[in-house]
Amino acid sequence: MDFNLIKDLIYLDELKLFERNSSNFKLFFPFICDQPLVFSRRHNSAILLGKVTERGDMVRLLIAASGTGGHLFPALAVAEKLENTEIQWLGVPNRLEQTLVPQCYPLHTVNVEGFQTSLSWKTLTVATGLTSSVFKVKQLLQREKIKAIFTTGGYIAAPAILAARWQGIPVILHESNYIPGKVTRLFGRWCQTVALGFEGTAQYLADCRTIWVSTPVRSQFYAPQPLDLPIPENAPLIVVVGGSQGAIAVNRLVRQGVREWLNEGAYMVHLTGENDPESQIISHSHYFSFPFYENMAGLFQRANLAISRSGAGTLTELAVTHTPSILIPYPYAAEDHQTYNAEVFVTAGAAECYAQETLTADQLSASVLYLLRSPERLQEMSNRAKTLAVVDSAAQIQQLIKDSLAK
């Protein structure tokens, strides 16, 4: 966008956009957004700008996404695609959205928790919190004149969907996992469309209008990203990632075999998460350990092999970057959905999968060594991963949101 073309004052509802030298606003470009923002010191909030339009042309959208990267990154990928849209964000306190979202969008929070599998006093507390949250979200919808809601599921979706139904506002829900979550199963029927990360998920949502779109990934995954690490161009690279929260059990298995892999000439980037007390015990010139690494697109694009959990978002990133993988599903995921996610990749020939409960360090070490010594097998797995990629997932959801407003 050429900001030199902005000559006049343009109204965006209560916010006013001035030229770049205005003292009331400043323009800035946070790491997670590809488009510029206008930040209001007076309102302590931000609006993502697509094309600058007149006030009446702006669509007001609420995005309800909270918790882990598996919920947040697909929602951010969709938000990147939206033009002429004023976005508000709904989350909960003290979760990952508190770090990622305020740099791009106004963040509103409600205190809501996950549903319990059995009745207890906790159930009453959760129900009370949900009821209170529905009223708060309804007030937000009215105050901000929201016209549609997009949510990536999880418990934050419950008050959003219920308040939207109360207000007669359309909801597009994205379910990334093969086994749909409780909120999707309970409230998906009240959404205009449930967009699916896996085609087979439709069998569990017979009373919902579903469409398979895969899971959106951030735009940087579709363009080459340079990797700022001292790794030789032709050296095999293993990337270990336990999801946005890390995986200590996986880390321990990896450390027991890592020296054999490094002795084969491989390099490793190990993303340990922030809660691993042993994260720095390996010292080797081919080994790089980080709690978190921002440039995941560049990392997966460069990797010859990934050792990973099997959250839907990570799997989609592996597919888009054509990265072969050894998958170790998180054993305590709700209804074991990570195992079902992984089975899709195993069936396609894109991955190997091992249950954490039975996997030994020797088994993992032997599997990695076999793949390092079998470039043809790695190439075949890469080709298979490519077949699982849907490159326009975010654009498809953008169109679903647009269509929902036209009805």
List keywords for this structure.
seven-stranded parallel sheet; 12 helices; 407 residues; 34% helix; alpha/beta; 18 strands; single chain
Topology readout:
Elements: E1 10-12, E2 15-17, E3 25-28, E4 37-40, E5 45-48, E6 59-64, H1 69-81, E7 85-91, H2 97-100, E8 107-109, H3 121-143, E9 148-151, H4 157-167, E10 171-175, H5 182-187, E11 193-196, E12 210-212, E13 237-241, H6 248-263, E14 267-271, E15 287-290, H7 296-302, E16 305-308, H8 312-320, E17 325-327, H9 337-348, E18 351-353, H10 361-372, H11 375-387, H12 393-406
Parallel strand pairs: 6-7, 6-9, 7-8, 9-10, 10-11, 11-12, 13-14, 13-16, 14-15, 16-17, 17-18
Antiparallel strand pairs: 1-2, 3-4, 4-5
Helix pairs in contact: 1-12, 3-4, 6-10
Report on the structure:
This protein is of the alpha/beta class and 407 residues long. The chain is built from 12 helices and 18 strands. The protein has helices spanning 69-81, 97-100, 121-143, 157-167, 182-187, 248-263, 296-302, 312-320, 337-348, 361-372, 375-387, 393-406, and strands at residues 10-12, 15-17, 25-28, 37-40, 45-48, 59-64, 85-91, 107-109, 148-151, 171-175, 193-196, 210-212, 237-241, 267-271, 287-290, 305-308, 325-327, 351-353. The protein has a 7-stranded parallel sheet, sandwiched between helices. α9 links the parallel β17 and β18. The longest helix is centred in the N-terminal third of the chain and has 23 residues, at 121-143. The radius of gyration is 22 Å and the shape is elongated.
